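Hi R.,

Here's the chain you asked about this morning:
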Amino acid sequence: MPAKATLFNLKCEPIFDFGTGPRNSVFFNPQGTILCIAGFGNLRGDMEFWDRKQLKLISKPQASDSTFFQWCPDGEHVVTATCSPRLRQDNGFKIWHYNGELRNTFQYSAGDELWEVGWQPFPLGVFVAKPIVKPTVSVAQAEAAKPGVYRPPGARGKPPPKKISELEPAENMKKIAVEESNLSKSALKNKRKREAKAKAKDQQAHDGTLMSRSSDQRDAIAMTNYIVGGATTRQQPVSEGNADDDKKIKALKKKLKAIEKLKEQQQQGKELEKNQLDKLKTEEALLKEIQQLEIS
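And the predicted structure, written out as tokens:
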């Protein structure tokens, strides 16, 4: 039966259901930002790379006949290998990026054996987490590009037979899969075009909002988003003073988000109250305070 993967919190409460698939291994990168669920050994080598924060599938490459997997200390690359004595034929290793790209491959000659592979070790904290890079081809496009299953002429145009062990998609893909299965090819194509257009429009609006600010404000926002918004810090002991600063920064960031919501309401034509207008005037002071806390 396909293996089911679920993410739990410290209270043993389920957070996210990754669905089912041919898996027998789970690996977090050293920074804890990317999760790889894979099936090696007697399975076909499917790998699923997930964004831990957004819980979205990044890529789904396949490393056939692999018996070994290891994350690079930089948290961006992995090595898969076919090693002896588990498999004595076609020994070698491959280096992948988490976005699904195969960066390098080394195949041993017939008769030669590879027994072990490993990355050069580095102390924790040398490599900090970087923003997630999405692949140029999405998982859905890659799956659609694969050749379909052959069906004899007599079975074409009829619903496919029900499988005994149907793979279950992840919880954030179930609704999409059901919706798209009910659409024709042209309707599905138009739907994806609308989604891409809406995404581009949102990005353009975000860029326009940033450009309407002064250069100092843009620099402060960029610094705030980098520090507060998700860059993992080095794994070193934190002093009480730094912890207090972090709390202040988070509180200020929360106030900035509230101001952004008020600005959106004002742009939509809603009349703001006096205390809300006073909040808008504090934006520049909040940005400067965040910048000073980060410098100190």
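The beta strands are 3-8, 14-21, 25-28, 34-38, 47-51, 56-59, 68-71, 77-82, 92-97, 102-107.

Let me know if you need anything else.
M.
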